[in-house]
Every structure is written in C-alpha cells, then in structure tokens.
Amino acid sequence: MLILQTLAANQPMHGFEIASYIQEHSEEVLQVEEGSLYPALQRMLLSGWITGDWDRTEENRRARYYRLTAAGRKALQRELQRYARVTQAIGRVLQNQPA
C-alpha cells in the first residue's frame, strides 16, 4: 500500500527513491529494506499494478523507474479501504479495553 501510494503521488521513481520517500515522510519511523522492496516491486509488476522502464539516475546510474498503472490505482483504493477497516476495528477493540 505504501509503495503504491508513493508512486501515485510521485511518478516515476526508482527503488531507492521509493524507500527514501517512505522513510522521510514517515519521519524515519518506517524503513523499507531492499530485501522487501524489490520483491514487492516485482510482484506488483507481475500483477500489472506498476510498470518499470530502465533509465539513468541523476548520478548516471542505470535504474528502473516505476509508474502506477490504472490497475495499480484500483489496487491502491482497495488496499486503502482494507486499511481503514482494520484501523477502525483495532480502534474499537482498544476502546473496550480497561485502562
């Protein structure tokens, strides 16, 4: 969900930019490790949620730049709805707990 949201707001981006954006915008609370990021990006590519095109970074390094597809936007909306339901459910449980 966080990767899709990042790409929805900032297309196109390469993997390091995605990880940095999430870390920075979570005020350093969330860190996306390479071992999680690149397999997730590959799954999203195979699902058709994102596309990836090879290009050069500002430092002239070869990198794959990812973009969100229409299917990815739909998947993001589903994930956001699911997240809202889970967050509300957790909130209800926590409200019913003794202090």
What is the topology?
Layout: H1 2-9, E1 13-14, H2 15-25, H3 34-47, E2 50-56, E3 62-68, H4 70-95
Antiparallel strand pairs: 1-3, 2-3
Helix pairs in contact: 1-2
What does this 3D model show about the protein?
There is one protein chain. The protein has 99 residues and is of the alpha+beta class. It is built from 4 helices and 3 strands, in the order αβααββα. It has a single domain, classed as Arc Repressor Mutant, subunit A. The protein has helices at residues 2-9, 15-25, 34-47, 70-95, and strands at residues 13-14, 50-56, 62-68. A 3-stranded antiparallel beta sheet has the order 1-3-2. Helix 1 (2-9) packs across helix 2. The N and C termini lie far apart (32 Å). The mean pLDDT is 94.
The CATH homologous superfamily? Winged helix-like DNA-binding domain superfamily/Winged helix DNA-binding domain
What would the principal axes of the Cα set say about the shape? Answer: globular
Query: Mind telling me the CATH class?
Result: Mainly Alpha
Distance between the ends: 32 Å
**Biggest sheet details:** 3 strands, antiparallel
CATH architecture classification? Orthogonal Bundle
Mean pLDDT: 94
Question: Structural class, from helix and strand content?
Answer: alpha+beta
Secondary structure tally, helices: 4
Brief overview:
This protein has helices at 2-9, 15-25, 34-47, 70-95, and strands spanning 13-14, 50-56, 62-68.
Keywords:
99 residues; alpha+beta; Arc Repressor Mutant, subunit A; three-stranded antiparallel β-sheet; 3 strands; 60% helix; globular
